[in-house]
């Protein structure tokens, strides 16, 4: 081509339809183990999406095939009934599905080339796909499990439907969709899933490599005409022809996020309108003096325009700008820590910001006792604008910007009026008076250093003061009665140590109080074996434990505490029923409610926490099925994991011939399965 000679003339240009290169690089399978000799049951394709699925048979007679596991998978996927929609018709996993993913989205630079008799035949590719095992049958098994759980809990469905019918319906008209919202929608996972579901499958016939039909189709990769005189002459120059073979890469237009949450690009930021720039900066920085904000914007930006924008997204606190709560927590969102709705978070954060308009430091315990939000959310509010100080609570991060207040008195007055309106709303919601939080103008006292002997003496004096009430509660407990002891309120000005980390939690409910009530992982929950004599098992607690075990049958102590925390979180605010609950009291209540501890012999190298090794099971419910559960518990006192046939043999030995449905019910109520073994609920070790 460089010399311009036509030594290699183009005979013919042709385009084949739907030529795919399928890469058979299956994970966890060596390249030498191909699927050429495996029976292909079916194949189908979605041409527009370039999705291919192939079903291949599994050799169930192979010595490497686990028959019991195959039957268990089929049972989980299809259930016990048989119909035409079953995935496995022989009640055994006898096939597997392979689904494709696109190895590349742009195949304009790729072609299939065949060299024969000195001729190079080139065919462009439609797509390059890579086959991977599909586990869609697991999704079907999960949906079956959810259906069974919904059926078991469907007793109150009619009542729920009646309540739904009684609710008023509000009709709202959708707003016109903006271009940014449209771009986000078409890139969302739900939209892509919907588009994939819309295109129908096209069923194909599979032909192996050595099949005569495959050999016939391969001939279409060769140019069919060999008479050069019948073809048009190539009139392209060498450079143009090279550009056709190697087209320049076109940059794909990707919609970039407006404001990344972790990295803020100043070059990208300055391409946005001024209002969006201010909003993005405040959302990322949270707290900023006005002078710093002007320094981050482009030089020459009008300060009056910036003032108009900043008042839309921030509030003035001690002369500094703090981002508004509804900007950080938009409507219809929730807390990443606890799942609390955005409206509740905004009220709590506004209260924290309002407190900083009155004084430089606040105490976290005092804040939490009023807004009654989980500790992680309260800590997040404070970290936005304050830092912990030893013996002084949380102090506002920045000094008061007196210069801004003097330079812009009209803005400061307008912000003061806004805070008065916010204060009146907060007083109605949280039921307090501003007089309860008068500003402390006096300087902060110096930290008082107390020796260990003084602390011990103070503790002994407090213990002597509480001795009569504790003795009275202890006597009542021995007599079988209950008594409530009024707890002394914690001083609002108690020294608060530096708090820079949150306590770990084994459940989704955060540590601390929920809706103002102490929960099973809060400081009020005594993790000692003794517990306070005042914390006697109440009727409400016994009722909760009975209902929980009749629903779950087997629970670890850790899981019961998690469910208890969820129960507390669902209670209406102000309904004080439960007081401080100790581990000891909770275990006593379990034993009072016809349940027993199952001494599961965990291995020495077990990673389970102590609360996860305390396993309790429903012992007596008044049903005939109690005998089955007791025998099951006895089996698990020998080993923490057993096979199904061991359980079945023990039941048959004691109770005679047991129907398969009873064994399935027993295992579903009390156990979980993993790796062909059965474990009591909550005891599976990773």
UniProtKB/TrEMBL annotation:
Residues 140-166, 455-534 are annotated as: Disordered. Residues 140-151 have a biased composition (Basic and acidic residues). One of its GO terms (cellular component) is RNA polymerase III complex. Residues 439-686 form the DNA-directed RNA polymerase III subunit RPC5 C-terminal domain. One of its GO terms (biological process) is tRNA transcription by RNA polymerase III. InterPro entries: RNA_pol_III_Rpc5, RPC5_C. It comes from the Eukaryota. PANTHER family: DNA-DIRECTED RNA POLYMERASE III SUBUNIT RPC5, DNA-DIRECTED RNA POLYMERASES III 80 KDA POLYPEPTIDE RNA POLYMERASE III SUBUNIT 5. This is Polymerase (RNA) III (DNA directed) polypeptide E.
């Amino acid at each position: 081509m460089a010399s311009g000679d036509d030594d290699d003339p183009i005979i013919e240009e042709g385009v084949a339809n739907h030529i795919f290169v399928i890469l058979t690089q299956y994970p966890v399978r060596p390249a030498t183990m191909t699927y050429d000799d495996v029976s292909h049951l079916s194949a189908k394709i979605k041409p527009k999406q370039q999705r291919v699925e192939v079903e291949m048979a599994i050799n169930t007679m192979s010595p490497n095939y686990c028959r019991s596991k195959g039957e268990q998978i089929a049972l989980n996927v299809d259930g016990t009934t048989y119909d035409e929609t079953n995935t496995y018709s022989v009640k055994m996993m006898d096939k597997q599905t392979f689904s494709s993913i696109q190895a590349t989205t742009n195949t304009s630079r790729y072609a299939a080339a065949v060299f024969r008799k000195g001729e190079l035949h080139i065919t462009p590719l439609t797509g390059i796909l890579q086959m991977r095992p599909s586990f869609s049958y697991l999704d079907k098994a999960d949906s079956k499990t959810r259906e069974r759980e919904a059926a078991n809990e469907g007793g109150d469905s009619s009542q729920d439907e009646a309540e739904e019918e009684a609710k008023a319906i509000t009709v709202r008209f959708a707003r016109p969709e903006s271009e940014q919202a449209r771009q986000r929608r078409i890139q969302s996972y739900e939209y892509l899933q919907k588009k994939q579901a819309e295109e129908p499958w096209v069923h194909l016939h599979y032909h192996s490599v050595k099949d005569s039909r495959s050999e016939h189709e391969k001939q279409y990769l060769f140019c069919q005409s060999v008479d050069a005189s019948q073809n048009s002459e190539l009139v392209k120059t060498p450079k143009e022809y090279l550009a056709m073979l190697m087209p320049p890469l076109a940059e794909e237009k990707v919609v970039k996020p407006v404001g990344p949450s972790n990295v803020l690009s100043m070059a990208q930021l300055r391409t946005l309108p001024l209002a969006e720039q201010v909003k993005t900066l405040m959302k990322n920085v949270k707290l900023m003096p006005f002078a710093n904000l002007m320094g981050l914007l482009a030089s020459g930006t009008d300060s009056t325009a910036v003032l108009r924008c900043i008042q839309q997204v921030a509030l003035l606190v001690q002369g500094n700008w703090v981002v508004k709560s509804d900007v950080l927590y938009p409507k219809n969102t929730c807390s990443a820590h606890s799942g609390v709705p955005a409206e509740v978070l905004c009220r709590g954060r506004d209260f924290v910001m309002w407190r900083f308009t009155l004084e430089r430091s606040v105490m976290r315990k005092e804040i939490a006792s009023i807004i009654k939000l989980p500790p992680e959310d309260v800590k997040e509010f404070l970290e936005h604008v304050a830092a912990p100080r030893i013996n002084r609570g949380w102090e506002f991060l920045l000094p008061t910007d007196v210069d801004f207040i003097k330079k812009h008195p009209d803005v400061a007055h307008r912000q003061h009026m806004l805070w008065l309106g916010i204060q009146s709303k907060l007083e109605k919601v949280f039921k307090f008076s501003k007089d309860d939080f008068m500003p402390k103008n006096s300087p902060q006292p110096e930290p008082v250093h107390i020796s260990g002997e003084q602390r011990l003496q103070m503790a002994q004096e407090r213990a002597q003061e509480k001795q009569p009430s504790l003795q009275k509660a202890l006597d009542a407990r021995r007599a079988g009665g209950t008594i409530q002891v009024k707890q002394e309120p914690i001083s609002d000005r108690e020294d608060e140590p530096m708090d820079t980390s949150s306590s770990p939690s084994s459940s989704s409910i955060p540590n601390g109080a929920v809706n103002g009530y102490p929960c099973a992982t809060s400081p009020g929950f005594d993790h000692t074996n003794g517990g306070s004599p005042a914390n006697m098992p109440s009727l409400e607690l016994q009722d909760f434990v009975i209902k929980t075990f009749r629903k779950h049958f087997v629970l670890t102590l850790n899981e019961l505490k998690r469910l208890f925390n969820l129960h507390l979180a669902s209670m209406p605010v102000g309904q004080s029923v439960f007081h401080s609950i100790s581990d000891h009291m909770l275990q006593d209540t379990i034993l009072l409610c016809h349940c027993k501890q199952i001494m599961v012999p965990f291995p020495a190298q077990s990673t389970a926490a102590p609360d996860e090794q305390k396993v309790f099971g429903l012992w007596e419910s008044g049903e005939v099925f109690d005998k089955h559960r007791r025998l099951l518990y006895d089996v698990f006192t020998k080993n923490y994991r057993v096979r199904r046939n061991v359980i079945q043999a023990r039941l048959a030995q004691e109770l005679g011939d047991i129907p398969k449905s009873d064994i399935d019910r027993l295992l579903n109520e009390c156990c979980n399965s993993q790796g062909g073994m059965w474990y009591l609920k909550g005891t599976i070790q990773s």
